[in-house]
Amino acid sequence: LSAMGEPSMDPTLAADSTAQQDSLFSMTDVFLISLITGLFTYWFFFRKKKEEVPELPKMQTVAAPVRDSSFIEKMKKTGRNIVVFYGSQTGTAEEFANRLAKDAHRYGLRGMAADPEEYDLSDLSRLSEIDKSLAVFCMATYGEGDPTDNAQDFYDWLQEADADLSGLRFAVFGLGNKTYEHFNAMGKYVDKRLEELGAQRIFELGLGDDDGNLEEDFITWREQFWPAVCEHFGVEATGEESSIRQYELVVHTDVNMNKVYTGEMGRLKSYENQKPPFDAKNPFLAQVTENRKLNEGGERHLMHLELDISNSKIRYESGDHVAVYPANDSSLVNQIGEILGTDLDTVMSLNNLDEESNKKHPFPCPTSYRTALTYYLDITNPPRTNVLYELAQYASDSGEQERLRKMASSAAEGKELYLSWVVEARRNILAILQDMPSLRPPIDHLCELLPRLQARYYSIASSSKVHPNSIHICAVTVEYETKTGRLNKGVATSWLRSKVPGQQGSSSLVPMYVRKSQFRLPFKPSTPVIMIGPGTGIAPFLGFIQERAWLKQQGKEVGETVLYYGCRHEREDYLYREELARFQKEGVLTQLNVAFSRDQAEKVYVQHLLKKNKENVWKLVNEGMAHIYVCGDARNMARDVQNTFYEIVSEFGNMSQPQAVDYVKKLMTKGRYSLDVWS
């Protein structure tokens, strides 16, 4: 049995085995109990932490900026009921917004101007929480129908928003230029889109045209806008316009000069201690390494400048724009100081009387009057009517005072006088002070009223593939005689002309930054390009041709590169003649068509050469899928070139005029017809 069954166990071994089993069981129990206790303890503390999270002070600080970015909260806190948002690239829309916000007090209302970049615009749906509330939008259109930089986020939000704005009351004034293809596109879009989202328009869309008289367009719209607001809210004007100072003057007699701004755009001492990234508020001080005259004769001065961007980490693409911050002519600044009997080296601050305003000063403060008039204020453009109105009180001669008030009024006679005496005569503030001997305003009020001096944009005339450490500019010096016999000079071009390469100090430095553009070469190098750029409009095409030459050197297949260039006289202002001839010889520039407009009795322009080569142009566009680029004058050249393309498309594509127009518009939509134009 035993052989068939389990072997018998020794009794002592059996006892040991039982003891071991008892011991093992108790150890397992201990282990399991410890494990459960540990897990429970971990869960208990972990759960407590989760519960305590909302009470941590850290969470409260995270929420604060959201409240700060609410214009609704700010309006409630400061008792405002009208908010005027501005989309501004050159400062004009911001100026108009400030004027409208200031107007509000005449009707027992309180307004504030606001930069859409600083606020959460989804709060528009909450504006109805404020009694007699209204949102006004002064929207400039930039480039080819684009929003301005500070309105880009607002534009993106409008496109994507599914908000209910049924409680919002609004009005829009657009700032545009009729010489451009997409006239006032941004103003029109904002007006249309707000209505689509359910908002109530309380006054019709205003369309300002900078090619005509933008100031008059604004005044005409404004004088009809306020009666509409009064009617809507059942309020009345409380009186005539009154001069209300926005800033108070503080003169610094004992100040640390290290705390005084000397021309910086943002951070104090930013020009002494340069830190990337560089942009509009933090420009890079580039050294001018070359400044040469391009033309061989004629009255004009056409110039080629090279800016050194080594060690700046600035990157650019062919077709981008370089923005430069110029300085006003010191003789103009000195003359203003002399006429007003002011010590221009007085250090002062202009502090906003509205403590809740995001804009504490009209320009960087503390600074001197000299610095403000040289680097921060526009003293060369004809002043707008609101400036004349505010200055009128300082004219001791009643006739001069009345004349200033009349020009600032909305009466037809006043508008006509402003147009002829200020705009058409190109009278700047110095000329007005000279021609009105009794007008002697305090310099601090003048500094408060003058608009900011803006950056000037130039199409970059180089390729970063060939010139990674330098940016090239091609420009013509602006100089003309006014109807009053004065010689007016362009601020930026005269200032650039005076730059001396290699010299120490500010005489060779240019504060600059790069603005990205949509003006781009085709993605495939093999795609043909047709470039049309007379005069300084050749600038971006130098970059394009340099890049196509570089691509060819890299062994890439490069498509046809066709240039239509124009100038007045072959022997006077044929810009970059040698460079273009070299590119043609190397086979990079496959066609070089040059129109010399004044070398013969009948004027010949680039559009005439396009017509002459119309068959080849159509073949490149229709079969070669060529990209077309136009750069230069918007008012005449760009329009004439576009009309020529309509004719070519109509003739060779067997299309009616409307069909041909539609064809060219589709090329634009697809990015095959690009414009980089100015008026």
Automatic annotation (TrEMBL):
Cofactor: FAD; FMN
Enzyme class of the recorded protein, top EC level: oxidoreductase
GO CC terms of this entry: cytosol
Domain FAD-binding FR-type span(s) in chain numbering: 281-522
Keyword Endoplasmic reticulum applies: yes
Matches recorded under SUPFAM superfamilies: Ferredoxin reductase-like, C-terminal NADP-linked domain, Flavoproteins, Riboflavin synthase domain-like
EC number: 1.6.2.4
Domain called Flavodoxin-like: residue spans: 82-226
GO MF, one annotated term: FMN binding
Gene3D superfamilies in the cross-refs: 3.40.50.360, NADPH-cytochrome p450 Reductase, Chain A, domain 3, Nucleotide-binding domain of ferredoxin-NADP reductase (FNR) module, Translation factors
Recorded superkingdom: Eukaryota
Descriptive protein name: NADPH--hemoprotein reductase
Organism encoding this protein: Loxia leucoptera (White-winged crossbill)
